[in-house]
Amino acid sequence: MNKPVQPMSSLSLKLPKADRSIETYRLAASRTFPAKLEGPLNRIAFSAVHTVVDPFADNDPWLSAAVDWDKTIAFREHVWDLGLGVAEAMDTAQRGMGLDWPTSLELITRSVGAAKRRNALVFSGAGTDHLAVEDAKSLDDVIRAYEEQLSAVEKVGGRIILMASRALAKLGRSADDYAKVYNRVLSQVREPVIIHWLGDMFDPALTDYWGTKDLDKAMDVAVAIINNNAAKVDGVKVSLLDKQREIDMRRRLDKRIKMYTGDDFNYAELIAGDSQGFSHALLGIFDAIAPAASYALSRLAAGDEAGFHDVLGPTVPLSRHIFKAPTRFYKTGVVFMAYLNGHQDHFTMVGGQESARSMLHLAELFRLADQAGLLANPEMAMRRMKTVLASHGLED
Description:
This protein is α/β, with parallel strands linked by helices. Helix content is 42%, strand content 12%.
C-alpha cells in the first residue's frame, strides 16, 4: 500500500530560484509506491518510454545515437512490472529528433522480443521519418514510406502505432489527400493500429496536419477517416493538450475505437472520465511517474476514485512543468527524472538534449517531483541534484 506523506526535514540542498537567489530547500514529501502492479486495471495504459544512451560511446551526439541497450530494455521491464504497456520508439524516445529509423527499428526489435518473453504489452511507432521531407515529392512517396516501416515492424512481430508524418504534413492539402494516404495504409495492416495525432507544440513540422489550420475542421477530417476505417483502428492517441477537444473527439469516435489520452496537462481527469465515457492512456509523463501511475490506476479499478486522484493529482503540476513550452523539449525533464530515480547513472541524452532546458527548469522540476512524492530514493535524488548543480557552478 501507498505510505502516507512524511516530512524529510533533515534533507536539504541549495536550489536556484527565478529571481537569481538561492534557497535552502528542504525535502518535503516521501511516498512509497509498489514496485509491481497491485491488482487488475480497468484502463489500458501505455508509457511512451525514453531511450537510455551510452555516455561513454565515442560518437558525435548531434549526428548519431549510441544506445545503452541493457539499460534501455531494463527500463521497459520496470514499466511492464507495473502493469503498464510500452509505446515504443515514439517522440519520447526522441524518434525523428535524434533517433533515426535504423536505430528505432533495432529498438523496436529488441523491445518486442523482450515483451514476448514475458507476455507484456508493447505497440511500436511506424511512420515515414526515413523519408526526408525535402525528398517527398508525392503522396505515393508518403504511402511507400509508411508501407516500408509497417512491414518492418510487423515482420518482427510488433503491433503498430501509426505516427503522424512530416512528409504528409508538407504535401497534404485537403481531406482527400489525407484520406488517400490513411485509407491505403490502413487497408494493409495485419492487426488494428493506434493512430497518433501529434500536435505542432510537440513537433512544429506537423503544423496544418489533416490539411488545415482550423482545428475544428481538422477534427472533422480525422474523425471521418478513422471511423471509416474502424475495423483497422484499435484506438486514437490525441496529443493536443486540449482536454475539451479530446472529450469531443472521444464522443464522436465509432464505439469500437478507444481514446488514448496524450494530454500531459489534464490526464488525471480524462482517465477518470465522466458519465459519457473515459480515456485510456498513452502518455510520455507515465515514463517519469510510472509507479505512481500504476498505483493510482489500481485504485481507480478498485473503485477508489478518491485514492486515484490523491496519488495522480499531485503529479499534474510536475507534468505541466515538464511539458511547458517549448513542449518539444519535454524529453529533457523525463530523462532527468529517470536519472534522479536511479534508472540510469548519468544525465545524458540522444542528440545532447540534456542541454535543452535551463538549470532553473531542472531545479523547479526537482521541487515539484519531491512535493508529489515521486523521488523513489530522496537521498540519492538529492546527491544527484547536487552533482548537476555543481556541474553548472552551483556549489552546495
